[in-house]
Amino acid sequence: MTLKTVLAALFALCLVSGVAIAPSARAEIVIDVNQGEVRPMPIAVPAFTGAQRGGDMAAVITGNLERSGLFAPVNPAAFPERNLDIGIQPSFEGWKAISAQALINGQVTVEADGRLRVDFRLWDVFSGEQLLGLQFTSTPENWRRVAHKISDAVYERLTGEKGYFDTRVVFVAESGPRGDRIKRLMIMDQDGANPSSLTDGSYIVMTPRFSSTSQEITYMALRPTGSSIYLFNIETARQETLGRFPGMVFAPRFSPDGGRVAYSVERGGNSDIWVMNLASRSQSRLTSDPGIDTSPSFSPDGTRIVFNSDRGGSPQLYVMGSDGSGARRISFGSGRYMTPVWSPNGDFIAFTKQQGGQFHIGVMRPDGSDERILTTSYLDEGPTWAPNGRVLMFFRDSQGGSPHLWTVDITGRILRPAPYPGSGSDPAWSPLLN
Fold first, then answer.
1. What gap in Å lies between CA 150 and CA 16, rounded to an integer?
2. Residue 33 pLDDT exceeds 80
3. Within 10 A of 367 (CB to CB), how many other CB atoms are there?
4. Measuring CA to CA, how many Å separate 15 from each of 106, 267, 338, 425, 434?
5. Helix 143-159 vs helix 54-67: angle between axes, to the nearest 10 degrees?
6. Which residues contact 298 (CB under 8 A, 6 or more apart)?
7. For residue 104, what is the DSSP state?
8. Do 340 and 304 lie in a common domain?
């Protein structure tokens, strides 16, 4: 049977970048992520053949797809073929016999200049058609990023939605006794690999947040002398404070264009939301209510801000214009609503809810409709969105224990611990890397 290439492209990258040709028609094997019950697709990912990292790359791809909850990787012990040649069509009858619906095979080659070239194919086992065929080139130390790029390409081809694997997470790593925790700013790949400390633990850090336009984060630092908001450039390790504030300053978050930071300032028991223009460092006060207004989060188009306020007697969610105008309450359920964050697609707002002695992670529409509770435990808090708006990360704490990172999809059915084994809180998901 001749190869039928539904999608062919060449990716050439100094780090990882490229272009692709869109397929003329979708394959029959597609995961409908919006149906009532999703049955994970059986997928086989044999070790890539060739010079270096073939088995490691297959393992990273397998782990990414399995953790999404949408794929069920087949046990390698059942594989009917190994060392698949990238230029030869697989023997599909053997793969059908183990009920694999999709098959990924690849090859790693070392170029004359020392770079890695990675070719891979995605196959529809039952039709015998190739669904995807791509080539990546990268430096050897970036092999994991290539594996994440391949995972993203497969995820998008089979679900119709953007992937989220070539991303990083910044969070607060916690250590030490419960009453005297050391809190460091930490960054890692979304799959828990390559964890690295960004601060030394000599002061408390809280609420790190990514810029959507660059590899920059903002966070709150708490010292005995008071609180400060910092900007931290991940690529250069340069950090700078946004200045001195009369009162405690906390809960910073970037605007979608990266040009502003919204935050809360507490003075004399009253907290209001402010915004700073990063170019001019000019500040504007957005709220002046006698209640506690905090946790601002911009809509993706930058025209609105969701925040929580107790101006009505208990913490609830409100939406206002990004200039502070027209604030209106959107949460009306029982319980206390906190830490809202707008989804990258603009279709949902995630939040923490405290009710009945338990904490929940939930989502609602920006007008307050369609409220759904996704998780429940002793303490679930601090949701952050993956860049495709399909998955949330948050932290979960047990009574007398320590916090750990978890993920849940927007249906609430795919709930699992994040792959980072240590204690962590306040996660923030990066945009897709360039």
1. 11
2. no
3. 10
4. 19, 47, 39, 30, 8
5. 40
6. 253, 254, 255, 256, 262, 304, 305, 322, 342
7. E
8. yes
